[in-house]
Amino acid sequence: MEKQVAECARKAYLSGRSRPLQFRLQQLHALYRLITEKEAEISAALKKDINRSQYDTPLFELIGLENDLKLAQSSLSDWAAPRPAKKNLLTLSDQVYTQAEPLGVVLIIGAWNYPWALTLQPLIGAIAAGNAAVVKPSELSKHSSSLLKELLPQYLDQELYPVVTGGVPETQELLQQRFDHIFYTGSSSVGKLVMEAAARHLTPVTLELGGKSPCYIDKDCDMSVACRRITWGKFANCGQTCIAPDYILCEPGIQDRVVQEIQRTLLEFYGEDPKCSLDYGRIINQHHFDRVMALLEGNTATIEGKNDREECYIAPTILRDVSPHSRLMQEEIFGPVLPIVPIGGVDEAIRFINDREKPLALYVFSQDKKVIKRMLSETSSGGVTVNDVFMHYTVNSLPFGGVGNSGIGSYHGKHTFDRLSHHKTCLVKSLAMEGMNQVRYPPQNAVHLKRAKFFLTTRLCSCHRFACVWAILATMVALGLLIALLVVLLKDAPV
């Protein structure tokens, strides 16, 4: 079945109907209608999947999708337009530009933690770029997956944008097919398998992975505000966010204050019993519940509560004085567990971060500009937010993606369009002005080589055809008129 779906999508793409800008705009508008008209159904599905509140679904997923869709619709003609390139003297009168063209058929493998945003954001870029796309939502968020399969064909072209549901066997069968780009969001371990499968067809990939995103708290900052923002980012979606703060680095002297402020904020956000809070989510399934609980073995929590495997509920958990060698620090937690690792200061924090895989996000809380500058310049990560968490993700003019083990490639807004386009190099030359080409034709000599070097290394501004020629001619005419005027004035001047 998966082979037939991929073949059908390619046949639809080869028909050419996904390429006209008007068609792309119509499909983007239809997707916008889906998001806005079916918000209640989407929220209900996510409530069943991870106990997401009706307010958090728009906040964390739908508003961002609406913004991306509005941006794509308003900017598509600019994105798709030829982009002039700088010329040299040898190409002075030529058209020199890049032209964005669709890659073909894209496979989008979504994630379960934000099943709408992390599946449809790549789809927006695929549609805007003129591609066909096979959409594979995660089987773990089963209610959202079923709803997406039901709704998407009601709004979008069914042949160009089919939805394939199912688990590992279906995904493996899809990966056997030839695609022109694979866009995967998930774990690094599965990302390696996706990349291996893509290599068989030399298919380019975008891998949006994760890792352990560190959060450094400097002693010179507003501890109350810092811990409030960290607590929100860590425990939103029950800690199941790829850019959630994975652990805190701070000096031992402020560790007690950090714990106190987080505890106070947890009480403010979720009440005495977070299990009863409408704003506190659940772990996606019992397998992941067991995985997170296993990470806690051998550690003593400073703040914890009663956990419930049947309801996949893990209470907000804080651990202090965590050893860098503990199991908690060896893999991404992806749950509501926050370890605090004591370090000696900014120098040790930088070494600690650089000794590990490059994270998807880095968070720095400090009022010291020197500390901030050092963290930005001396560490490497997919993105950095200073004195807050998550917020770099919300700016769709910024590229979002990882580096090294946390991902390959970036997206959001125009960056998704560019990622899922081929930027074809174009040079259109006239058959006139053949004399200019003598410097490159044989027989060669030292004079020709010198002239060729001059023509090829002299760069000009990027502009449309003949614009530079007319500019030069206009300048020459102006200079000629100026000289003529000076001659007349000097001729008529009294001796």
Descriptive account of the structure:
Strand 6, helix 8 and strand 7 (205-208) form a beta-alpha-beta unit. The N and C termini lie far apart (98 Å). By secondary structure, the protein is of the alpha/beta class. The strands form five sheets. Strands 10-11-9-8-12-13 form a six-stranded parallel beta sheet, sandwiched between helices. The protein has a five-stranded mixed beta sheet with strand order 5-4-6-7-15, sandwiched between helices. The radius of gyration is 29 Å and the shape is globular. The relative contact order is 0.13. The protein is built from 16 helices and 18 strands.
Notable features of this structure?
495 residues, alpha/beta, five-stranded mixed sheet, 43% helix
Give a quick rundown of the structure.
This protein is of the alpha/beta class and 495 residues long. The chain is 43% helix and 15% strand.
Span of the ends, CA to CA: 98 Å
**In what range is the share of β-strand residues?**
5-15%
Mean pLDDT: 94
Rounded to an integer in angstroms, the radius of gyration calculated over CA atoms is 29 Å
How many beta-strand segments?
A: 18
Helix share, percent: 40-55%
Q: What best-fitting shape do the alpha-carbon axes yield?
A: globular
Oligomer: single chain
What is the count of helical runs?
Answer: 16
Task: Explain the layout of strands and helices.
Layout: H1 2-14, H2 21-37, H3 39-50, H4 56-80, E1 83-84, E2 87-88, E3 95-102, E4 105-109, H5 117-128, E5 132-136, H6 142-155, H7 168-175, E6 181-185, H8 188-199, E7 205-208, E8 214-217, H9 223-235, E9 247-250, H10 255-270, H11 286-295, E10 317-319, E11 337-342, H12 346-354, E12 361-365, H13 369-378, E13 383-386, E14 400-401, E15 407-408, E16 410-411, H14 414-419, E17 421-428, H15 446-457, E18 459-460, H16 467-492
Parallel strand pairs: 4-5, 4-6, 6-7, 8-9, 8-12, 9-11, 10-11, 12-13
Antiparallel strand pairs: 1-3, 2-18, 3-17, 7-15, 14-16
